[in-house]
Backbone:
């Protein structure tokens, strides 16, 4: 990028040239979700370290994560994880030589997007109403 | 469309870094491992999380809970370092690329060490 390309021959076209299509979107989202999940592992390890540190530190962290910005971040990480996982299955199938036809690739792209949304909502519904997750944690922190 | 496979011997040991297909294979092996580990981890995590600090400590301190968490974090750390390496190599150049690669490897290793230390401490009740 910063190497000062001086060759006048045309470069391969990028996002500003191509018409947007769904496999392009999943490719970009896969990368974005992957980078986001690198940050997500910081939160996971912070959770482990806080548990090892003791109850007071653990509940302090729970209090932060149960706040609205905390919940929003956790929801984002859940969505990123679900999408990256499901879309990753598509790439593993492609690696094995299957599902690379245009129609199939487009269909599985939509499936990955929609299923990751459904899965994320299912996890949060379970956490909130099925398991009474965050209210319990709030009581513990209060 | 039939995709013709390339014989492994034609690519092994090639490339300017002479690392051949090691990056590719490690990325996929950890991907498949995480495909099994993450659902297991998430299910157990959500079950223990509901009973607060004591529930979490009991789960992380049990051999199975510690093993699942250790394996999940280990596979994650290898997978995310390889993944971010690809992103960095695509978008950065020169000294910025070197610094970003070093930082990415550094944080991956440090996060793994903290996780291992925390799990050992919880398991042995130190």
Residues:
């Amino acid at each position: 990028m910063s190497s000062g390309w001086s060759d006048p021959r045309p470069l391969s076209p990028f996002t500003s040239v191509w018409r947007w299509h769904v496999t392009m979107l999943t490719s970009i989202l896969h990368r974005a979700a992957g980078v986001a999940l690198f940050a997500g592992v910081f939160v996971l390890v912070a959770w482990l370290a806080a548990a090892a540190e003791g109850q007071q530190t653990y509940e302090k962290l729970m209090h932060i994560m149960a706040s609205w910005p905390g919940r929003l971040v956790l929801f984002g990480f859940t969505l990123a994880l679900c999408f990256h996982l499901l879309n990753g299955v598509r790439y593993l199938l492609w690696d094995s030589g299957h599902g690379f036809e245009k129609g199939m690739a487009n269909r599985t792209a939509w499936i990955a997007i929609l299923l990751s949304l459904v899965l994320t909502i299912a996890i949060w519904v379970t956490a909130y109403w099925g398991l009474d997750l965050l209210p319990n944690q709030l009581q513990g922190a209060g | 469309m039939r995709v013709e496979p390339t014989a492994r011997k034609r690519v092994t040991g090639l490339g300017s870094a002479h690392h051949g297909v090691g990056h590719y294979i490690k990325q996929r092996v950890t991907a498949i491992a995480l495909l099994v580990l993450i659902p297991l981890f998430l299910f157990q995590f959500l079950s223990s999380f509901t009973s607060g600090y004591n529930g979490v400590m009991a789960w992380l301190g049990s051999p199975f809970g510690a093993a699942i968490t250790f394996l999940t974090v280990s596979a994650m750390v290898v997978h995310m370092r390889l993944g971010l390496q690809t992103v960095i190599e695509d978008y950065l150049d020169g000294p910025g690329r070197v610094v970003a690669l070093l930082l990415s490897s550094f944080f991956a290793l440090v996060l793994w060490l903290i996780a291992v230390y925390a799990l050992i401490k919880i398991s042995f009740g130190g």
Observations:
- Chain B has one domain: 23-124.
- Chain B has a mean pLDDT of 90.
- The two ends of chain B are 59 Å apart (CA to CA).
- Residues 23-124 of chain B form a domain with the 3 helical TM bundles of succinate and fumarate reductases fold (CATH 1.20.1300).
